[in-house]
Specification:
CATH architecture: Alpha-Beta Barrel
Largest sheet: 8 strands, parallel
Structural class: alpha/beta
Number of strands: 10
CATH class: Alpha Beta
Helix content: 25-40%
Number of domains: 1
Oligomer: single chain
CATH superfamily: Glycoside hydrolase/deacetylase
C-alpha cells in the first residue's frame, strides 16, 4: 500500500528518528542542534528557510554532512519570504523594525483560517519560495513538517502535498499515532486533535505516494523534554518506527523577550541535555533501538 512506511531492517526492530525542529531560527538554537548531533542521539533536523539564522544553519550543515536536513515549512513564525503585507503576515514586526513577519503563532493563524481570511494562494507562493530556496541550497530535501503542525489543516495539507511532489520529498510528519508520555496529562485535548488531523493526513498523503513514520512522540512535552522523560518514552516504545520531535538549543533571551507567547517557558538547554544524556544512551543501547534517518525508510 502506498504511503505505508517500512524500515530497511527487520520488522521486529525498534527504529527511532530523532528530529530537531527550528534549525535556522536563531544562532543559539543552531548551536544546540549541532551539539546534540555531534554528542548525542540526534540524526535529523528540520530547517527554516525564513529564520533569523538560516544562513548560519546552512553553513553548519556543510560542516556536519551527516546531519539529515528536512524542511520546517514556515506557515507561522519567521520572516515572510514574499516580503510584503499579505493574509499571512502579522502586524507585529517581532524580528525587527522593517521586517515582514508571518503570524506570530497558531492561535492567530487558526482564527483567520476559520474565518476564511487566509489566502491559500499566498500560502502556496510562500511555501514554494521556501522549498525552492532550500532545494537550491542543499539539494534533495529528506522530509517535511510544518511549524506548529499547521501542515495538517485541510486546504493547507493539499498545498503541502502538491509542493512535496513538486520537490520530490517523500516523507511528512503524520502524527496519527501520537504517543503521550506515560502518566502525563499535558496537552491531552490538543493531542486528540493532532491525532484526528494526523489520520486524515495519512490517508491523503498515501494517495500522493508520501509516507511517514508509524509512531510519533514529543508533542505533549514540547519545550519541556528532559532526560527522564525521554527515557520513559523509549522504555515504552513499541516495535516499529517512531519519530521523536525535539527542540534542543542554548538559552535564547531574544525569543523569550520578543516571542514570549511561544517561548517564555521553553527549556531548550534541558532538551539538549536530554539528547546527550548517558541515561538516554543507555536505554537506546539496552532496548536495542536503532537510530535511523528518513533516508533509511522505504514505502
Amino acid at each position: 500500500m502506498r504511503g505505508i512506511m517500512k524500515y530497511v531492517g527487520s520488522q521486529n526492530e525498534r527504529n527511532l528518528i530523532v528530529t530537531a525542529d527550528d534549525f535556522g531560527l536563531t544562532d543559539e538554537i543552531n548551536q544546540g542542534i549541532v551539539i546534540a548531533h555531534q554528542q548525542g542521539i540526534l540524526r535529523s533536523t528540520a530547517l527554516l528557510m525564513n529564520g533569523m539564522a538560516t544562513g548560519a544553519a546552512l553553513e553548519l550543515r556543510r560542516q556536519n554532512p551527516g546531519l539529515e536536513i528536512g524542511a520546517h515549512l514556515g506557515i507561522v513564525e519567521g520572516y515572510s519570504l514574499l516580503g510584503k503585507k499579505s493574509t499571512l503576515s502579522d502586524d507585529l514586526q517581532y524580528f525587527g523594525q522593517g521586517s515582514v513577519c508571518l503570524h506570530r503563532g497558531w492561535p492567530l493563524f487558526i482564527a483567520k483560517y476559520l474565518k476564511g481570511q487566509i489566502d491559500l494562494g499566498e500560502l502556496e507562493e510562500e511555501l514554494d519560495l521556501q522549498l525552492s530556496r532550500m532545494r537550491s541550497e542543499i539539494g534533495p530535501i529528506a522530509f517535511a513538517n510544518g511549524t506548529q503542525h499547521l501542515h495538517l489543516l485541510p486546504g493547507v495539507l493539499d498545498i503541502v502535498l502538491k509542493l512535496m511532489n513538486k520537490y520530490e520529498i517523500k516523507w511528512l510528519r503524520l502524527p496519527a499515532l501520537s504517543r503521550t508520555v506515560p502518566g502525563s496529562m499535558r496537552r491531552i485535548p490538543y493531542n486528540w486533535a493532532l491525532r484526528a488531523l494526523g489520520y486524515r493526513a495519512r490517508r491523503r498523503a498515501a494517495r500522493n505516494g508520501i509516507g511517514g513514520t508509524k509512531y510519533f512522540a514529543g508533542f505533549d512535552v514540547c519545550g519541556r523534554l528532559d532526560a527522564a522523560t525521554v527515557c520513559k518514552i523509549l522504555e515504552g516504545m513499541p516495535v516499529g518506527t517512531m519519530e521523536l520531535m525535539t527542540h534542543p538549543g542554548l538559552d535564547c533571551p531574544y525569543l523569550r523577550e520578543n516571542l514570549p507567547w511561544g517561548y517564555q517557558t521553553f527549556a531548550w538547554a534541558g532538551e539538549l541535555a536530554a539528547l546527550i544524556s548517558p541515561a538516554v544512551a543507555e536505554v537506546v543501547a539496552r532496548r536495542q533501538i536503532n537510530l535511523i534517518q528518513f533516508k533509511d525508510l522505504t514505502h
